[in-house]
Amino acid sequence: MRSISIFGATGSIGEQTVDLLERAGGADSYRVVALTGGRNVTRLAEMARALRAEVAVCAEASELPELRERLAGSGIEAAAGPEAIAEAADRPADWVMSSIVGAAGLAPGFRALRHGATLALANKESLVTAGPLLMAEAARHGARILPVDSEHSAIFQALVGEDIAAVERIILTASGGALRNWPLEALAKATVKEALAHPNWAMGQRITIDSASMFNKALEVIETREFFGVAPDQVEVIIHPESLIHSMVGYRDGAVMAHMGAPDMRHSIGYALNWPDRAHLPVARLDLAQIATLTFRAPDLERYPALRLAREVMARRGLSGAAFNAAKEVALDHFLAGGIGFMQMAEVVERVLAALDGELSRDIGQMTLEDVQAMDHLARVRAGEIAGVVAGAR
Ligand code: NDP
Ligand code: MG
Q1: Could you tell me the pTM of the whole model?
Q2: CATH number at residue 36
Q3: Strand partners of residue 6
């Protein structure tokens, strides 16, 4: 029986992973080792019971008594805190879903690779902040990383049986997010609620805002470069409002392989879960006659400064991905709290990159996970200060 752990089980990706496991027989088909959550211990305990997990861990230490109470009599171990989450990743499992949001997802993924697990990677921040380290760790332990982000799953599938050396370009599609049809001048005043109204995908709150600002696409461009090992100028972005083509791979003979499907993350999660097989999945089938047209347009870099910043990060590598991601997370927190405006998120990130300029170009061969974590911390402090200044000047 295959053993499985899910880090970030109570989130949007985690819930959809649990849904697929339950449809495939749940605890009768899989041995569930660890399930982790953040604060939502009610749901965490419920899924741990349903899937008969060995251990359930929440990030929030103050929730531990509640988690224990909800698991009483089940025989399921309970633990709390970041270190307990990392320890849960030390428990061997064949397949591990990495779907914690943000930089907190980094350590558990690394620890899972060390015992040779197949890591289904939704946590794109891992590749953005520490791509070269993560790929090297996987190679060192003979572990495999399978992409879960829909674009990267699409690219991965369009590469099956092909030689990466024959790839000319990779074209990431972007929906454009909730504000894609707003005039540029209006974007500065966009509210959290407006940025959360995603046209196609139902996702967690943070990634939905990142989708409207294209910070999500910026992370994905970097993720593509790190995961597939292509050059930065081989990665392109095109706005495709229907979100039916999930990404494309262009080959040197001019062929373009596009991956299509309904916008439902259970496809990419299910592909990673069943790889290299394809299992029946409960996602909607495309009715092409009904869809009739697909549209595309080039992204405007003035509207989406995050895409321009991603190019800078790819050119520098080193610790710039860690700084970029951390600054973005802090800027997002300030936007969510009403401190800064929608367009000011990019301003904060750009200013943090400039402020840390001298410290970013670290030789990748010399980088350690601790360096990445230290830069994450430093960039958060700087971003907090800069966001305060930007908010004050508003
Ligand atoms: P959610 O916000 O829905 O879920 C995040 C999960 O992480 C929850 O289980 C949450 O726990 C847990 N969590 C939050 N903070 C911490 C922390 N500090 N330590 C440990 N656990 C924590 O996010 P999504 O599922 O949307 O996204 C997860 C990852 O997948 C992100 O990296 C995202 O970029 C990526 N992704 C998501 C897609 C989507 O469609 N949602 C698509 C492609 C990629 P709790 O809720 O209990 O507090
Ligand atoms: Mg994506």
Answers
A1: 0.97
A2: 3.40.50.720
A3: 35, 97
